[in-house]
Amino acid sequence: MTKKYLKEFLKTYVEIVTEYTAKNDGLVSITEKLPQTFLSKKPFIIVADAGFLKQLKKLGFKTFDKFWSEEYDNGKHINDRVRLIGGSIEEILTKEINVDAYGVIIYDEDMKEI
Predict the structure, then answer these.
(1) What percent of the chain has pLDDT over 90?
(2) How far apart are CA 25 and CA 13, in angstroms?
(3) 15-18 and 44-47 as β-strands: parallel, antiparallel, unpaired?
(4) What is the average per-residue pLDDT within 49-60?
(5) Is the separation of the CB atoms in 61 and 38 below 8 Å?
(6) Residue 52's Cα: distance from chain center in Å?
(7) Residue 49 carries which DSSP code?
């Protein structure tokens, strides 16, 4: 990761991850993209198969439903999920986001726990 990219990445509040598939057939594909968000310790919104977040929760992971709507996970068609993701992004844009003197995001303790 270049220094310039890292500086901008640290100023990003949430990652939008696009998974390999976005179907609604009851199967959920989890690829390497999601663990990358875990390693970066960034909150995420995921464009993926219907029920992706539900499956993550079944596996014991926490998601960010406390901070913004994750209703997009229930959309029957990818178009519905993308529209609902847009609503979640609009919701995030209304939040007050704390940053340090360099513009780096400061997450509260509840967010850090996830």
Answers:
(1) 67
(2) 31
(3) parallel
(4) 95
(5) no
(6) 11
(7) S
Question: So what's the pLDDT on residue 56?
Answer: 94
With the C-alpha atoms ordered 96, 71, 76, 20, is the resulting torsion angle positive or negative?
positive
- Average pLDDT (47-75) is 95
**C-alpha closest to that of 82 among 94, 91, 93, 71:** 71
pTM exceeding 0.85: yes
The whole-angstrom separation of Cα 86 and Cα 21 is 19
Residues in the chain: 114
Q: How far apart are CA 27 and CA 49, in angstroms?
A: 7
Q: Which residues contact 114 (CB under 8 A, 6 or more apart)?
A: 43, 62, 63, 64, 66
Distance CA 106, CA 42 (A): 11
Residue whose C-alpha is closest to residue 89's, from 71, 74, 105, 103: 71
